[in-house]
Write a structure and sequence with these properties.
Length: about 425
């Protein structure tokens, strides 16, 4: 697995101090500083407002690209800067608290881009990677299905070759950002007679073609950040394959490893866990409960988990900087990220008390902790559930035996999985 930071060889690097000054100058001219109160409040997900924010994010990302501040560790051959990972850290430190909109491109930068860079054809690299860095395209990941969540290899979406095209039929679920994605990385079954892990292929799919239907999924918060995606005879070019035909499991593992590193170990100004402790502490100070021993214990737990997560992130970044492929650190960091957010949400709702359950209709921060209590479950699922991460850590870190897999060598069409009976 190759992470974003190792896509390229390293180019001649500017002096770090001067680079920091460049970043500060660009932020001062182009980016908006988000006030602490606004960070605490967060934003309710609204699709119309989201599309307006995406348009602004595209402009900012194009400006970053023109300023030589996009794709800092990506290959210069494909539009990046070819710099060591140290420069990512510098940029993240300076960008903390600014609104850049880079979250719209997280799947492209943290998951699809590294996978195409490692497994894609030369034409795919030169076509898609520069467009990602300029903010021209957004991407989604089309893996999970109603009958294949944690067991991704049991998916049933089919890709059948028809001349110079692949014909796609099936359904995906819980697809983040599919409603605004230009392209998707699709995992589909191309050989039902092979064992489930060996008959999969990964494709690049244009989300705007005929035969692709995106429908929103309503969450407990009332928002709709996720989608169902249906394929009904959607046709894509024969050269849309990422990697090899029936080699999709290798591509999927590569992408999932990058996703876990991106979720758990990225850090930086847009990191969802960055303000967890400070937000809970600020709440306790406003409520006058910082001397309560129970509250202090809850605060200590959030702080401790956040600090441990920081050390794991640093270890991952050091591994990348030294030229090593991140291993199970990605799973550890991803699991810890979920633990931090859940601990912060539990502490926050406990400290807020009844104000996390009822609030004045004209209070812009009123529902912040109620939504905060319901939202952390998202990260416990994305990139593999917490239980999956614990299995990986158990096997790859602790050396525990793998769980039995009696269906691993059986032809897929003989398995009773999902709706296949």
């Amino acid at each position: 697995m190759t992470s974003v930071s190792r896509i390229a060889g390293v180019a001649a690097a500017p002096e770090p101090g001067r680079f920091r000054e460049r970043v500060r100058a660009w932020l001062a001219e182009y980016a908006r500083k988000v006030e602490a109160k606004e960070q605490r409040r967060g934003r309710r997900f609204d699709r119309e407002a989201e599309m307006e924010a995406l348009a602004r994010a595209r402009v900012l990302q194009a400006s970053l690209f023109d300023a030589g501040l996009a794709g800092l560790t990506w290959s210069r051959e494909y539009g990046g800067q070819g710099l060591p990972s140290e420069y990512l850290r510098i940029f993240a430190e300076e960008a903390r608290g600014y609104e850049l909109g880079t979250n719209f491109f997280n799947i492209a930068f943290g998951m699809v881009g590294p996978t195409i860079a490692q497994l894609g054809s030369e034409d795919q690299k030169s076509t898609y990677l520069p467009r990602m860095l300029r903010g021209q395209d957004t991407w989604c990941q089309l893996f999970s299905e109603p009958g294949a969540g944690s067991d991704v290899a049991s998916l049933q979406t089919r890709a059948v070759r028809d001349g110079d095209e692949w014909v796609i039929d099936g359904q995906k679920v819980w697809t983040s950002g599919a409603h605004r994605a230009d392209f998707g990385a699709l995992l589909a079954r191309t050989d039902p007679d092979a064992p489930k892990h060996q008959g999969l292929t990964m494709f690049i799919l244009d989300m705007r073609i005929n035969g692709v239907t995106v429908k929103p999924l309503r969450q407990i918060t009332g928002e709709a950040q996720f989608n169902e995606v249906f394929f009904d005879g959607a046709r894509i070019p024969i050269d849309s394959v990422i990697g090899e035909v029936n080699g999709g499991w290798n591509a999927a593992v590569t992408m999932l490893m990058n996703e876990r590193v991106a979720i758990g170990a990225a850090g930086g100004g847009n990191d969802v866990t960055a303000g967890s402790f400070s937000n809970v502490l600020a709440l306790a100070e406003r409520m006058g409960t910082t001397k309560d021993p129970v509250v202090r214990q809850r605060l200590a737990r959030v702080y401790t988990l956040a600090r441990v997560l920081g050390f794991v992130r640093q270890r991952t970044q050091d591994a990348v900087k030294a030229g090593r492929t991140p291993g199970p650190e990605g799973s550890i960091a991803k699991l810890l990220s979920a633990e931090v957010l859940q601990a912060a949400a539990d502490a926050g709702t406990s400290i807020a008390g009844v104000s996390a359950q009822a609030w004045a209709s004209d209070d812009p921060e009123g529902d912040a902790w109620a939504r905060g209590a319901m939202s952390p479950f998202i990260i416990t699922i994305g990139g593999g559930t917490n239980e999956i991460q614990r299995n990986i850590i158990g096997e790859r870190v602790l050396g525990l035996p793998k769980e039995p897999q009696v269906d691993r060598d059986m032809p897929f069409r003989e398995l009773k999985v999902g709706t296949q009976r």
